[in-house]
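Section 5: illustrative case.
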């Protein structure tokens, strides 16, 4: 998997905007604010993401110590943080969706989950990696 959690596949500003717009009473929603809010949440989660990467590395490589774990985490996070897709892929999708849903509920009276976002995805919005997995499941073939 290219992304941290399955929920990361639903972290699309367009998808989240469409869900909020279709379910809000107040239709005065600026699409750009959705992307800005996602970016704010990703920044809030940066340190927590660093810690998770370092902890995972340390658990797998205890003999190399904390310093190596931190260096590894820094390299991974710096590379991911250099692009929007990298940030979206590496942070906890569950947390981003939960925080976005809370913000949306507070501002527009609309809450959502990854499941509700998945329901409104169009075929064009489904990432190729997910399509490949679905095909593998349907055809009972190995996922590569």
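Designed sequence:
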């Amino acid at each position: 998997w290219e992304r941290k959690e399955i929920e990361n596949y639903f972290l699309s500003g367009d998808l989240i905007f469409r869900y909020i717009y279709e379910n809000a009473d107040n239709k005065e929603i600026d699409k750009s604010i959705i992307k800005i809010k996602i970016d704010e949440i990703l920044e809030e989660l940066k340190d927590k993401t660093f810690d998770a990467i370092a902890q995972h590395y340390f658990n797998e490589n205890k003999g190399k110590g904390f310093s190596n774990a931190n260096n590894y985490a820094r390299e991974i996070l710096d590379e991911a943080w250099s692009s929007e897709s990298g940030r979206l892929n590496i942070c906890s999708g569950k947390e981003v969706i939960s925080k976005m849903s809370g913000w949306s509920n507070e501002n527009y009276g609309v809450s959502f989950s990854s499941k509700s976002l998945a329901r409104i995805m169009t075929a064009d919005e489904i990432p190729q990696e997910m399509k490949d997995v679905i095909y593998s499941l349907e055809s009972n073939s190995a996922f590569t």
